[in-house]
Amino acid sequence: MKLKDSPIVIKIADDLGLKRHHNAERAIRNYCLRKVKSITTAFGEIKDLNQLLNVVSSHLQMKFEEVRDDEDLSRIAHKYTEKGELIFSNLHRELDNETDGILVRLNHAKPWEPKYVAVINCRGNKVWRAYFSKWHEVGHLLTTPPTQMTFQFRRTPVFKKALEEQIVDRVAGDLAFYEKIFSPALEREIAQDNRLSFSAVESLRMTVCDGASREATLRGAIRQAPAPQLLVIAGLGYKKSEERLVNSRQMGLFADKNLNIEPKLRALEVIPSQKAADTGLRIHKNMRIPEESIIFKVYEDLTNIGETQSECENLSLWEHSKGRLNDAKVIVEAKKSGDKVFALVCKV
Question: Residue 260: inside a domain, yes or no?
């Protein structure tokens, strides 16, 4: 079931007073964008996305606390328990490795103090998620109807299976790269080549959204890229039929060593720009990466990990069960990170 058709998401839209809609997900996201627009209009000029985060969170009476180590955890717990917020006495148990953040409604805040505290897990690799995690907690407040603002505690897991968390994640994605601020900066960065590049993404990270991770910035940028362009995230994976077989109970009990099912390099995720979607530029999810593609070569290259490589290619290299993709010349820029390759594919 798609998110927009979920009864839970439809109820959230209804609770927010969004009665007339054909797409509950889009109605909620647009509602949050309107609220942020109203906040920023009253504030005045906002130069970057971190300033936007500060303005919106301040308007919502929210304060962020970052936990980078056990000392931070103890300090924050002590600070708020001393103020009578006893829920913080369990902070060391609640903010575990499976938790990105915790949102707490304070019971003893002074009239001039924030009413909400979002404790953000910045320990280890989670530091790169902190920027997005903050927007996720903002999204929770924006999507919580006034009648439900009496909650005391809300935990945000790393793996967001609950539909409520998924819709908040979509809202956070809209706001973390708020189009009115991010899009003009993006257009300036790509003015010369008229296509998104990894160097442009890095420049955006250092200026308009300092603190955002490379992957989050890349995802935000591709969705607003003015050119017909795709972000392909490649890694090892199975065909659907192979995956069913590998995961089946029979495979586990009666494994046949002669089956020889090995994962292949595939397009695990494909994110198009709006122009790509409009013009029909596409690579299907889970397609096998052609060995002739720079994406495959970068994956196999063990000497230049982290370096960007690019080539002109043709999408007709890509095969699927019914043939090949249509003839189309593209520029492919690829970069390996960990066990995956991130590739930007732009139509020439």
Answer: yes
